[in-house]
């Protein structure tokens, strides 16, 4: 028998060369809502974009990537 389980969402923020793992504050929220939630703690997220999700270690990982200082 097959069992379907929902994968945990994990959000990765790269800050000062280190990866910071952020937990999902509310699984029903959209990824953009989570980004806005964490922008209060990490102001760099106000100019960040979200990368495509990747499945790693039984979790769906989203990376918040800062677009600060890039052109184009």
UniProtKB/TrEMBL annotation:
Classification via Pfam families: Prok_Ub
Matching InterPro entries: Prok_Ub, PRTRC_protein-C
Name recorded for this polypeptide: PRTRC system protein C
UniProt source species: Flavobacterium potami
């Amino acid at each position: 028998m097959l069992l379907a389980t929902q994968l945990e969402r994990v959000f990765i923020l790269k800050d000062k060369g280190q990866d910071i793992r952020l937990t999902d504050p509310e699984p029903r929220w959209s990824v953009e809502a989570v980004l806005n939630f964490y922008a209060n703690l990490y102001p760099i997220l106000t100019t960040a974009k979200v990368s495509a999700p990747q499945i790693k270690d039984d979790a769906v990982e989203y990376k918040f990537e800062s677009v600060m200082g890039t052109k184009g």
